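Input chain follows. Return structure tokens only.
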Amino acid sequence: MLERVNVDTLLPGMFIVKVTKQRGNIAVASAGKISSEQDIVGLVAKGILQVQIDLTKSTHLDTDDELSDFDDLDDTYINASGLSYSQQLKHSLNLHDQAKTIHGRLIKRVAKSKIADLEDVNTITQQIVRNAFDCDDALGIVTMLKKDDEYFLEHSINCAILMVIFGRSLEIEKSTLRHLGAGALLMDIYP
């Protein structure tokens, strides 16, 4: 599955298919996997603004060492999306972390009186909606994990997740769920 993402939302493990938006005329060999944060810094330095990634070739949601605690879970239950419970938890935790990164960047931009790029918010909200259908139980559990020093970031993200899960239970259309999730993500941001 191909998806366009802004360069500042890239994560190590994402597989770039091509550059879709850049400043200047610098030729960049674009196909390949991001192996580190340094690769992302390099793309930014070259004026890359947006890329297309292939989620089927990306490994940013694969098992991390810190997520190996879930390996001993009973994975006999496979949901309709073909994911075991430990896979659902890993995907949900990674999504939550990615959302914190995007939300943190957004807050910093607004605090500096810069224009907020809502494309990142729309992208992460689409992923939250997708996860609400693929692994809603695991996504709901992730909202209960709290880090005291990240309350502000987690509050908006958790509200967005819970809003989408609740809307899904009411059988609200996915397009409306994306709007509800984006609104919840932005609810604590002041001009």
